[in-house]
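User: Please fill in residues for this 256-position structure.
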């Protein structure tokens, strides 16, 4: 009888490694950071209720939420038409919950917290993303220094999580970040755009026609624009982008 029970346990261990891993290292809720019960849960139900998803009306180009539904474009896209085709995001960065989650991922080194937002984004927008017909996901590169201190590039972590569901490979080697740019926070949006232009370079000719840029947060679009220009110059025909969080057209955005 004892042996039987032991066999059952062994069977369980073999069939549910993820469940056991959750028992030993409990997953945390990406919003409140509390340990989650082992199993398939990636977020606690009350936190899920409080996510502010991106909903219409949105900017036709970058997908930023607008308050005025008679408008077609947000103020940034109106001022300077982006070179990318279109973009979409999972949730509004301006919501406290999303902001806390993104900061946690960015500064406290736990990419597992990205599991839920990425899975949820795929559930909600997967079919639309597949319609773009992209051949590769390109994470926005970070500086080497930042990569060393954080241990990972959060954009790459997002790309890897989306790649499985979309069946589109990640190419992290194509786009590179050139030299250290000045701290973006200290600059105006114009200065930020200028500073970023030329900060990205493509290693070798780009053989893809259609690409999707992946980043964690979209605010003014300066980073997406700089990356898109580098990719188009290298031979890409169409560039789309996905970010997890996006600012609101009406909110003064924290520069990132
Ligand atoms: Zn929670
Ligand atoms: Zn826009």
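Assistant: Residues filled in for all 256 positions:
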């Amino acid at each position: 009888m004892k042996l039987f029970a032991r066999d059952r346990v062994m069977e369980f261990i073999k069939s549910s490694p993820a469940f056991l891993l959750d028992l030993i290292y409990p997953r945390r809720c990406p919003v409140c950071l509390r340990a989650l019960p082992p199993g398939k849960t990636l977020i606690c139900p009350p936190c899920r209720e409080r996510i502010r998803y991106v909903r219409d009306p949105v900017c036709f180009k970058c997908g930023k939420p607008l308050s005025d539904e008679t408008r077609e474009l947000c103020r940034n896209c109106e001022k300077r038409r982006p070179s990318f085709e279109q973009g979409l995001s999972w949730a509004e960065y301006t919501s406290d919950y999303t902001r806390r989650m993104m900061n946690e991922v960015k500064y406290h080194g736990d990419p597992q917290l990205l599991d839920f937002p990425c899975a949820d984004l795929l559930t909600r927008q997967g079919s639309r993303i597949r319609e773009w017909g992209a051949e590769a996901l390109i994470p926005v590169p970070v500086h080497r220094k930042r990569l060393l201190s954080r241990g990972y590039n959060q954009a790459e972590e997002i790309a890897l999580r989306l790649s499985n569901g979309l069946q589109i490979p990640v190419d992290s080697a194509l786009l590179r970040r050139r030299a250290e740019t000045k701290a973006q926070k200290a600059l105006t949006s114009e200065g930020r755009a200028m500073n970023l232009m030329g900060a990205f370079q493509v290693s070798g000719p780009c053989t893809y026609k259609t690409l999707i840029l992946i980043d964690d947060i979209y605010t003014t679009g300066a980073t997406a624009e700089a990356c898109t220009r580098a990719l188009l110059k290298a031979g890409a025909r169409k560039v789309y982008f996905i970010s997890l969080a996006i600012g609101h057209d009406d909110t003064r955005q924290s520069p990132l």
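For context: Strands lie at 87-92, 136-139, 175-177, 200-202, 210-218, 238-246.
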